[in-house]
Amino acid sequence: MPDVLIAYxxxxxxxxxxxxxxxxxxxxxxxxxxxxxxxxxxxxxxxAFDRVLVAxxxxxxxxxxxxxxWLRRHHAALNRRPTTLLSVSLTADDDTPEARAARPxxxxxxxxxxxxQPSHAHAVALQPDLAQVDAAARELAAExxxx
Length: 147
Prior knowledge:
147 residues; alpha/beta; Rossmann fold
């Protein structure tokens, strides 16, 4: 049975790619991840999992609607276990002052809107830095030993 849920909401496929890469990293550590496409409605109850990673695309400073909706509905279960947010956006690659300010603002708005309190949150570029995705998966693994 999978012990790590990796849920994603992607408009153009990049958040899906990030989720798939995170699943590979989790699998390499001996765990059994379950990928779930939030846009397709393939979203199990997170209470059935030990840890959860959510990869959500950001457009115009707002996280994908399907991710926001799912997080709002499941925030209580998510807040009782280690979780990670991977916020996938154009601004993650941009080093301007405006972009640096936009990244935490988008994540803070998501957290405020949904009442979810992720254990870890990272901005990931649309051309994802795969080492950063791997590091986020390892960080979540540190919250509990993968079987």
